[in-house]
């Protein structure tokens, strides 16, 4: 590829390309993407790489219409790869910060994510995560008055349901597919537009929402962090954000999941 913009001649979609110096790369191109969408992914990948924990692809180029990153290939992780990845996620979750949020807003899927900083984790999660998604769903007729009342009750009890914890580096959209098995079997973090400083338990919770890693991953995490699995009891509360987001992005197929959480806690 010889153009100044290595993404310029590529059609929308996902491409594997070879750079002029022989490096293999993956290009994601989407000319209808919202302003700043791929810049947020590049920022997130840079923050994750700076933690020197899990593997993260290098960013070669970023533009409004796409991003070019290192091609990690695809492989089959072994037990020790899962254990190592769990331990490395625990190490990443020790990278602490003073406030919740991030230095810029991001994206969770195609939904904008407000990362305005806050010193209060409960307020941050309610005001920057749950409320915007719920109001969006209500405006579109996907949630009713009773749903909003249950959410209000849940938020009123939030500090009792979720223990206070410090803000740490989190992926923010850590479903199983974003824990990518590279050609060597090493697990890597990808799709990082939702990276911010938040609760470690929220990352763990999403890893159980759409399937989950095998037991050695969590054993590695627990051995490195010194924590148990009590976060699983709170996982539905953290995952309400992602269920609301999926309700807004993909429709009423996620409504039952949202209402299950609201009925249970609200």
Protein architecture, described:
With 266 residues, this protein is an alpha+beta fold. It is 42% helix and 15% strand. The protein has nine helices and ten strands. The protein has helices at residues 37-50, 79-92, 121-139, 145-156, 158-161, 200-206, 215-225, 231-250, 255-265, and strands spanning 13-18, 24-29, 59-63, 66-70, 106-108, 111-113, 168-170, 179-181, 187-189, 196-198. Strands 1-2-4-3 form a four-stranded antiparallel sheet, with helices on one face. It has a two-stranded antiparallel ribbon with strand order 5-6. Strand 1 (13-18) and strand 2 (24-29) form a beta hairpin. Helix 2 (79-92) packs parallel to helix 7 (215-225).
Number of helices: 9
CA-based shape: globular
Topology-level CATH name: Aminoglycoside 3'-phosphotransferase, Chain: A, domain 2
**Total strands:** 10
The string of secondary-structure elements, in order, is EEHEEHEEHHHEEEEHHHH
In whole angstroms, the N-to-C terminal distance is 55 Å
The CATH homology group name: Aminoglycoside phosphotransferase (APH), C-terminal lobe
Into which percentage range does the β-strand content fall? 15-25%
How does the major sheet shape up? Answer: 4 strands, antiparallel
Q: What are the key terms here?
A:
266 residues; alpha+beta; Aminoglycoside 3'-phosphotransferase, Chain: A, domain 2; 9 helices; 10 strands; globular
Explain the layout of strands and helices:
Blueprint: E1 13-18, E2 24-29, H1 37-50, E3 59-63, E4 66-70, H2 79-92, E5 106-108, E6 111-113, H3 121-139, H4 145-156, H5 158-161, E7 168-170, E8 179-181, E9 187-189, E10 196-198, H6 200-206, H7 215-225, H8 231-250, H9 255-265
Antiparallel strand pairs: 1-2, 2-4, 3-4, 5-6, 7-10, 8-9
